[in-house]
Amino acid sequence: MPRRLILLALILCACAAPAPGIPVTLERVQDGDTVRIRLQGRSERLRLIGIDAPELAQRPWGNAARSALERTLQGRRLRLEFDRDRQDRYGRLLGWLWAEGSGRPTLVNAELVRAGQAYVYARSPLRHRAELEAAEREARTARRGVWGPDGPRERPSEYRRRR
């Protein structure tokens, strides 16, 4: 009987669905919510949809967000999932980035919010909005990162507006 259970578990693990989307390769992390990727042979800038990380000039929060994104992506296979809008007004791709590794795929956008390294930034209905909002509630309750007692005084969107 235990052998059958082990065999069933191996079959289920082998059949686990990969993350949705298109395989991409990370070229580099630009800041806490933007990366450069290789997509179908082309180098592209990707803005992680639904989140807004502190600007690099919002020290130390911007650097912390970029470092968190680098750690989250390091050594993992990545997949890009598009939502309704594929590009922003600056020509960057907009998408959901999934990281595969040991265990089930991780939605990177939500991981950064859950870690307190980014805010939810959703102006329109988004495919994974509920997951982002749950991650932000979790980060706020735990007072992680930007939600901590020494967090930034203003959100990145407010900071950009003042500049």
From TrEMBL:
UniProt keyword annotations, A-Z: Endonuclease, Hydrolase, Nuclease, Signal
SUPFAM superfamilies: Staphylococcal nuclease
PROSITE patterns assigned to the protein according to its UniProt record, in alphabetical order: PROKAR_LIPOPROTEIN, TNASE_1, TNASE_3
EC number: 3.1.31.1
Biased composition, class Basic and acidic residues, residue ranges: 151-163
Residue span(s) of domain TNase-like: 20-149
Span of the signal peptide: 1-19
InterPro entries documented for this protein: SNase_OB-fold_sf, Staphylococal_nuclease_OB-fold, Thermonucl_AS
Name this protein carries in UniProt: Micrococcal nuclease
Organism: Deinobacterium chartae
Organism classification: Bacteria, Thermotogati, Deinococcota, Deinococci, Deinococcales
